[in-house]
Structure formats: structure tokens, C-alpha cells
Predict the 3D structure of the following.
Amino acid sequence: MTAIAFLGLGAIGRPMARRVAAAFPETVVWNRTAATAEAFGREHGVRVAPTAADAVRAADVVITCLSTSQDVAAVVADGVLDAIRQGAVFVDCTSGDPATSRRLAHDLAARGIAFMDAPVSGGTVGAENGTLTVMCGGSAEVLERVRPVLEAFGTKIVHCGDVGAGDALKAVNNALLALHVLSTAEGLAALQRAGVRPDVALDVINASSGRSNASMNLFPERVLTRAFPRTFRLALLDKDTRIAADVAREQRVPSPLLQLTSELMAMARRELGEDADHVEAVKMIERWSNVEIG
Ligand code: NDP
């Protein structure tokens, strides 16, 4: 029997934890805001720990899904490092930054604990359905040890390289998402002003070479309908885009588009606030162009 500790019951952590607990009955959950964990425990019949340290004490595998790597480092420093047992594996599903992950891996290794960054893609729907993509950074041997746990929420589980490689790949993926959301909004606003309806434009683009997940799914389902459901916070996409821009800069790769996308996402975050959904970045472009796409 594998004992799991799942820390972080946010928008995507909750459905991931639900699937892990269904597959591994010895799962204990913890969340900073205790009321969230208690509600989750009641709804799904899962054991709730009062502190992160209590949650990890008996765990073979610790999974974290927090906002940022800094949050993970803070939780590790606040009792988890001392409580986690030797031989356990620490799997961080946060979309984190490679440098902090490498530092965490180093600190945990000194206690005989293996670390793997394992950010996910596929959104809250993918988490509900257990069809996430999982981008793993760390040793291939550690990945094989925890693969059955990752299979509770992921279908495409990929070894990307050493610690930090999963974080770097996830950040670049999300920077592309941000770029597609912003550039599709600019294009559709311009077309609408030129007399082309956005539904007509998307119909053509989605049968042509400029299509993306943004044009195929996000704009038809969330922008044209004006639904803008809150599934993935803009603040988190801003964080991911900045990580991608930093990776490019650190690797001395010319990256004007990544740097500009990062600046634009930071502006959108300032304008729309911490609770806005990522697709609401479109509203900044709409305001600039005085057009409502739809
Ligand atoms: P949310 O903002 O919904 O939840 C964040 C979670 O982190 C909450 O459980 C929050 O606790 C916890 N947390 C934040 N700061 C701290 C801290 N300092 N100490 C302890 N706990 C903390 O985020 P999501 O669930 O959407 O995202 C989690 C991670 O997954 C992020 O890195 C995100 O980029 C990534 N991700 C999200 C996707 C999505 O579709 N939502 C898709 C793919 C990746 P509390 O409840 O107390 O606030």
C-alpha cells in the first residue's frame, strides 16, 4: 500500500487529489486554508491533516500543487523537511521555476528524499478526467517509482530531463498559450473593425494554418459567449510567462516575443487583478482597441 500526502487543494489540486485518493485509499490531504481541506475531506471521505508536517509524516509519496515554487519552499521550510521520512519521494506538481526546484531537490537529497518537478497541463477538466500531461524533471528511476501515482491524474507522463526540466517546459508551453490568447485577441479586434465577424474569422482560422488551442477552444467557448469561467488564474499565467522569459534570458537565447508577452501579461494582471481568469487578458486588448469581441 502506498501512502500519499497531497498538499494544496486549489482549482486544479482538488480534482487531482480526488483522483489520487480514489486510487490510493491511504491518502492524506492538507490545505493552507483549513476550511477548504475540511470541505474536501467531508465530500470525498478523505483524511485531512491539521498541518503539512502531519500530512507528510507517514507518506511514501508527497505531492504538492501550490501557486509558486516559493510557496512550496515555504511549506517545506515550515516543518515538512523535518517531518518527511527518509526514502520518500517529493513530487511537485506546481508550475514552478527551475532554480527553486533545483534548490529544493538539493535540500531534500541531503535528507535522503528524492525530488521531482512534475507540472501538469490540461486544465481543470483534464484533472477531473485524469487526462493531464505530466512533465517530469528528475531521475528516470524516480519517475518509474511514482508513475502509478501520476497515472491517477495523467495519461501523457513524460520524462523531460533533470530536475527543473519539467518546470522549464511547462513555462514555455504556457508562454505560448499567453501569446496565442493575446495575439488572437489583437487579430480578431482588428478584423471586427474591418467588418469581419469574429465567429466567421474563427471558423476560417480554425480550418487554416493560424489555429491554436486559443482559437479552437478558448475563444469560441469563453470569449464569444462572454462566459469567461474562472479555471486558471491570470496571475498564475503571468508567473509562468515570466519564468519562460527568465529561462530564455538565462540561456542567452534572443527572445523578444517571450519578453514582450511577459510584459503584457504583467500589465493584464495589474489591470484585471489577482482573481481574473487567464482568458480575461483579452479584455485588456478589447479596451485598448475599443472593441468587444463577439
Ligand atoms: P489556485 O490559486 O486555485 O490554488 C493555489 C493553491 O496553493 C491553494 O491550495 C492555496 O492555498 C495554495 N497556496 C498558495 N500559497 C501558499 C502558501 N504560501 N502556503 C501554502 N499553500 C499555499 O491555483 P491552481 O490550483 O489553479 O494552481 C496550482 C498550480 O497548478 C499553479 O502552479 C498553477 O500554475 C498550476 N496549474 C493550474 C492549472 C489550472 O487550470 N488551474 C493548469 C495547470 C497548472 P489556499 O487555499 O489557502 O489559498
